[in-house]
Amino acid sequence: MVDPNEQEVAAMRAAGDIAGQFIETVGRSDMATWSAEDWRGFIEAICGAYVDSLVEQQISITTALHKVQGVPG
């Protein structure tokens, strides 16, 4: 990713945390020994965490904006 913004960097951190947890769960840090199922799970975990983080951040931003604008939540 070229020149990520603050939200993207935060999402990458969240995805990195989940990646570490996934590797611990698999119990093998040598990715060459992973099965296709392990790899799918890894990709799903990190992509899901990245997207979830971006969505959560957007919800927070929108909620704060609505408060400032006086829009009912």
Structure description:
It holds the Pfam family DUF6511. InterPro entries: DUF6511 (IPR045422). It is a single chain. The protein is mainly alpha-helical and about 70 residues long. The protein has a domain at about 40-73. It is built from two helices and no strands. It has helices at about 5-25, 35-70. Helix 1 (about 5-25) packs antiparallel against helix 2 (about 35-70). The longest helix is centred in the C-terminal third of the chain and has 34 residues, at about 35-70. It is elongated and about 55 Å long. The termini are far apart. The model has no long low-confidence stretch (mean pLDDT about 95).
Query: What is the percent of helical residues?
Result: over 70%
pLDDT < 50 stretches:
none
| Largest sheet features | none
Can you tell me the overall shape? elongated
How much strand content do the residues show? under 5%
Distance between the termini: 34 Å
Characteristic key phrases:
73 residues; mainly alpha; DUF6511
Give a short synopsis of this structure.
This protein has 73 residues and is mainly alpha-helical.
Secondary structure blueprint with pairings:
Layout: H1 6-26, H2 36-69
Helix pairs in contact: 1-2
